[in-house]
Amino acid sequence: MPETILELKNLTKRFGKSTAVSDLSFSIEKGNVYGILGPNGSGKSTTLGMVLNVINVTSGSFEWFSDTMDTHDALKKVGAIIESPNFYPNMSAKDNLKLVCKIKEIDEGNIENVLKTVELLDRQHDQFKTYSLGMKQRLAIASALLNNPEILILDEPTNGLDPKGIHQIREIIKKIAHNGTTILLASHLLDEVEKICTHVVVIRQGKKLYAGRVDEMNASFGYIEASVEKLDNFTSFLDRLDFIDKFDNIEHDQIRIFLNKDYSAGEFNKLCFEKGFVLTHLIKRKESLEEQFLKLTN
Ligand SMILES: Nc1ncnc2c1ncn2[C@@H]1O[C@H](COP(=O)(O)OP(=O)(O)OP(=O)(O)O)[C@@H](O)[C@H]1O
Questions:
Q1: Closest Cα partner for 174 from 4, 32, 29?
Q2: What is the pLDDT of residue 298?
C-alpha cells in the first residue's frame, strides 16, 4: 500500500467573487515528485498556501498523513519555501541556518549535511548578501531541509534564475527526491515538470484538468496527417472508423486524424486504398507533451 502524505478533497478558495481554486482533489503518495502545473494565476500558490495553513480554506478539506495527527504537528514534518528566501544579509549562510534552528527549535546537527546537499558547504562562511540569486534559493532549500522533512514543498523554485542556476536547482531537487524525500512543486514551466516530476496535476483557473503520471500524460496514440485528392467522401469514410477519436482539416486538402488506439500508417494506407482513396500525403506523428499541455489548457 502506498503511504499517503497529503490528500486534498474538493478544496476550494474564493477571494470575494473570484474563485482561485475550485473543487480540487488529488493525493500525494510517499516517494514521488509531484508538479502542480498551470499558467500564471491558475491557483498554484493559493493551493500550496491552503495546505500549509497560511490561507484559509473556503470549502473542502485536506488531510496530512492520513489524518494521524493534527495539522500543527503534521506541518513540523513539512519543509516549504513559498516566498522568496529571507535571511540576514550580513550574517554567513551557516549562522543564518543556526538561527533558523534556534527559532524552529531544531537540532543544529543537520546544518553541515543540508549545506552539502545544496552544494554550499565551501561558501558557508560567506555573508548571505554576497550570494547569487541561485545560491540564495539553494540556501532556502537547505533551510527547509533542516528538520529532515517527509515532504519538501517549493513554489516556482527556478523563477528568475539563469540557465546554470536553473540546472543546479533542478539537479538538487532530483538528488533530494532520490534520497527519499517526497516533493511537491508548483511550476508554470512544462519542461521543468517533465524533467523533475514523476506525477503532475495540471490546473487552469483553479480547476484540475489532468492528474497522473508524467509518462502516462505522454502516452497518447498520436495522430495521422493525410491528404487525398478528393476530400468529399473521405471525411464521411473517416466518420465511420472506430479507431479514430476525431479529425480536423489543417490545410485545404490535409486532414489531421487523432487515433484512439494503436494504428500504423501502413495499415491506414492499405485500408484507404482498399476503399478507393489514394493518399497523396501520409505521416504519423506523436503529440509532444507540450502540444498536449496546450490542448489541455487552451
Ligand atoms: N489575496 C488575494 N486576494 C484576491 N485575489 C487573490 C489573492 N491571492 C490570489 N488571488 C487570485 O487568485 C488567483 C490564483 O492566484 P495564485 O497566485 O494562486 O496563482 P498561481 O497559479 O500561483 O499564479 P502565479 O504563478 O502567477 O503566482 C489569481 O486570479 C489571483 O489574482
A1: 32
A2: 65
242-267 core/surface letters (b: 16 or more CB in 10 A; e: else) = eebeebeeeeeebbebebeeebebee
45 alpha carbon – ligand 1 mean position (Å): 7
Dump pLDDT digits (tens) for 27-61: 999 999 999 999 899 999 999 999 999 999 999 99
Q: Which long-range contacts (CB under 8 A, 24 or more apart) does 206-212 make?
A: 206/13, 206/19, 206/20, 206/21, 206/22, 206/24, 206/42, 206/43, 206/46, 207/22, 207/23, 207/24, 208/23, 208/24, 208/25, 208/26, 209/296, 209/297, 210/296, 211/26
Pocket test for ligand 1, best of 15, 58, 81, 190 (most atoms within 8 A of CB): 15
- The CATH architecture assigned to 223-297 reads 2-Layer Sandwich (3.30)
pLDDT (tens digit, 9 = 90+) per residue, 196-225?
999 999 999 999 988 888 877 766 788 899
149 has a pLDDT exceeding 70 = yes
So what's the pLDDT on residue 291? Answer: 72
Report the length, in residues, of the chain: 298
Taking the domains of the chain in order of start, what are their residue ranges? Answer: 4-217, 223-297
Q: pLDDT per residue over 100-130, tens digit each?
A: 999 989 999 999 999 999 999 999 999 999 9
- The rounded Å distance from CA 135 to ligand 1 centre is 27
Domain 4-217 has CATH 3.40.50.2000: no
